[in-house]
Specification:
By secondary structure, the chain is α+β, with helices and mostly antiparallel strands. It is 37% helix and 20% strand. The protein has a four-stranded antiparallel sheet with strand order 2-3-1-4.
């Protein structure tokens, strides 16, 4: 495991903000020499703290400007029912996140579609067609004043 001190935390903060930052700029921001900074980043990668880098996409620019979180309850609480639901969500491009959660429902989904009509179609034709889905509660996102997903 990589040592986590204030400098490593600052490196992670900067890389989360901009994964394409040059090592030279990163080292200046965290107060290390470029070689020491690079060693730290490589150790964070090697130890599994940094698992990858990805592009942040604009859902609106991709025609997916309607965002909703959906709480999904299952009628059957078996491993087979959960695995079937998870397989269905893995095949569904509108679902950008699927989380198995505790509480009154089994899953929390992040769904991105073009508009309300596309959401209604997803709600009815995709979720509504799954055998073990017993409840669907939608939370439509109106704005995202803070979103730090990488």
């Amino acid at each position: 495991m990589a040592r986590m001190d204030r400098i490593s935390e600052k490196i992670l903060q900067e890389l989360t903000r901009d994964g394409r930052i040059s090592n030279l700029e990163l080292s200046a921001r965290v107060g290390l020499s470029p070689s020491a900074c690079l060693r730290r980043v490589q150790e964070l990668e090697r130890s599994g703290v940094i698992t990858g880098y990805r592009a942040r996409l604009s859902p609106a620019a991709l025609g997916r400007g309607f965002l909703a979180y959906i709480a999904v309850g299952l009628s059957t609480h078996t491993k087979a029912a959960q695995e079937a639901f998870e397989r269905a969500m893995a095949r569904t491009p509108q679902v950008t996140e699927c989380h198995n959660v505790t509480g009154t429902v089994e899953y929390l989904l992040r769904v991105e579609v073009a508009d309300l009509a596309a959401y209604k179609s997803f709600h009815t034709d995709t979720l509504g067609a799954l055998a073990h889905v017993s409840s669907i509660t939608s939370y439509v996102v109106m704005a995202s004043p803070k979103d730090e997903r990488g």
